[in-house]
Amino acid sequence: MSEINIDKLTPEQEALIPVYQEKWRSIALSTEPIDRQKATEAVKKAYALIGLSEPEILFYDSPYGLGSDRQLVIHEDRIYGNLYKPKRIFKEDFTSHLLSSLTTWADKILSQLRSKLEDKMLGELVYSLEYELYNIIYPTMEQVWHQLWDELESQNEHLNTLYDELLSAQLDTLTPNEQDDTLLNHLSNELDNLSQQEYQLQIIFGNDDIFIHSYDLISYASLSEFCINVLNLQDKHIEGEVLQEIAKNCSCIFPFEKLAIVCDRPRILCFDNQQRLHAEGQPAIQFADGYSIYAYHGVRLPEKYGTLHPHQWQASWLLEEDNVELRRVLIQGIGYDRIAQELGSTELD
Questions:
Q1: How many other CB atoms are found less than 10 A from the CB of residue 169?
Q2: How far is CA 287 from CA 200, 216, 222, 290, in A?
Q3: Same-domain check for residues 81 and 60
Q4: Structural domain count of the chain
Q5: pLDDT in tens, 259-315
Q6: Which range marks the domain in which residue 223 is found?
Q7: Cα 85 from Cα 77, distance rounded (Å)
Q8: Is 252 within 8 Å of 59 (Cβ atoms)?
């Protein structure tokens, strides 16, 4: 790494800090389709970085599409090799190892800068290009993933319910009539499919820490690129190159030792002025496969509410809605005057 001695940033260098902030913020919140060829190369380089062979790479338009793909067959031999085969089905140790390998170079830069820069200047630089950016991006994207986890959990509950219903139906049809054989075979196949689907959901989405999202790397990439381009740290390391390529070209990666699953960016991301997921009469998040999430000032809405503008919401829904938070949203969106008008009210005092 190049030797540098800096007492303070020049006005020109300080002026570039918000430029780099905005550049990487735009990357993190991009709704452009990922370039799958570039993403493939980035993932291969990441695996080579930790000494592994090129993995099988699968692409999905959304994490929800991955979780609901009945054609995907996941088994241990397909995803685990000899190095990171866990005792349980979750693989957070491998994900953590890969993530720490990607961020090692950024940590090295900080260590070097600590001996070159004044503490106050270093603190201000790191805060502006790493922590401040992280604090902007992370809460925003956390909302996205919390919504997705809720949807996937609901899907899993639906699968369990459907499984029980099909099993009950199968038992009820156990009669000696030969015409029941076709139905029994169909139900048996459905049960097998649902069982496999539930198992895959457990493997892929069983732990919140098993994926790497670009926002995990954005703040590191911003700081490291600024140090190279603006502070003239010319010596580039493979860790830094891979870190930036993953951050730029991949949205979400579910890494296994022998298999990497990459999900694309959403095509729509809408927020209110407090950076909470929000849209009126349309999805706040929508992926290329059509999977949509509706939200009102950070509160996820059922499709029944989300597809309509709040002006079209009906006060009578308040009488039917059991969820306290959704009732609050309905009241906020409809307004007290219209509620009183539609439901009727009596002035007591």
A1: 13
A2: 21, 20, 26, 5
A3: yes
A4: 2
A5: 899 999 999 989 898 888 899 999 998 999 998 889 999 888 999 999 999 999 999
A6: 11-265
A7: 10
A8: no
